[in-house]
Amino acid sequence: MPLNINGVAYLSTAQAAERLGVTASTLRTHRSDGTRSGLETLKLGNVVLYTAASVEREAARRGAGR
């Protein structure tokens, strides 16, 4: 279930990874090495959240969830 902050839906790293068909470790690696994934993030302390909209766009682009 997405977390809503100021009207924007966010997913945890685990939720985003599941939707995209990758591991959470893959998403962390992409963030740390600067790979341009097109995923919009919000960092709150040590927690990284992904906008649900950017995850859905990337999932559609990749054809995930078929």
From TrEMBL:
SUPFAM superfamilies: Putative DNA-binding domain. It comes from the Bacteria. This is Helix-turn-helix domain-containing protein. It comes from Streptomyces toyocaensis.
